[in-house]
Amino acid sequence: MAVVFPASLMMADTATAMMTPMGKVAVNGAPVLQATSLFPGDKIVTSANSTASITGKGLSLLVPGNSILVMNEKEVELDCGSALINVSSGMGARFSNIKLAPRDANARFEIRQEEGGFRVVARDGVLAVTNGSVPTLQPGQTMFAAAGCASDPTPSNDSQRGGGAPIPAAGTNVGAAVLLGVGVAGGLAAVVYFTTRTPSSPTAPQ
To answer: Domains, the chain, ranges and CATH?
Structure first.
């Protein structure tokens, strides 16, 4: 059989990561109740009070409730909500048109949706930024980008979309894994500004 099927077809089924759901989590619209493999293009949606823990080669992340993200081969794309992300060289993350990747060996950072856009918080390692107002973020520095959800937050039913992705209250920490929604901002990234304010009570994935 290995002779009949080309290697490219066999590699097409190779998982890029493993996900462990805690609570109500869906992959491509189907509810997932136990650890499962993730493949490029898979869309993960977490409902309120739920969490998804994802690990792969050069990647680990914690996705709290009311979030939507897509797994790609070399990056994770956050459409709505928040994520606490660890990546090594060769992997990265994206929201709207902004790309984030470790400048050196690895980086740990947080992307969280706030009223009017997304905030990036650098935790460990220098973070390289593409299409942002600054080229890099040092640990403790933050960047805000005006942006809205890239996906329709309206749920189709209880088994799909997980109830949408309302914006968490300003200052809510991703590590808490439960975010309170206050509304949804529209539009794509338009304005990015930079500040060195360090958010209080940083947390790591449990």
So the answer is: 7-168+179-195 (2.60.120.1440)
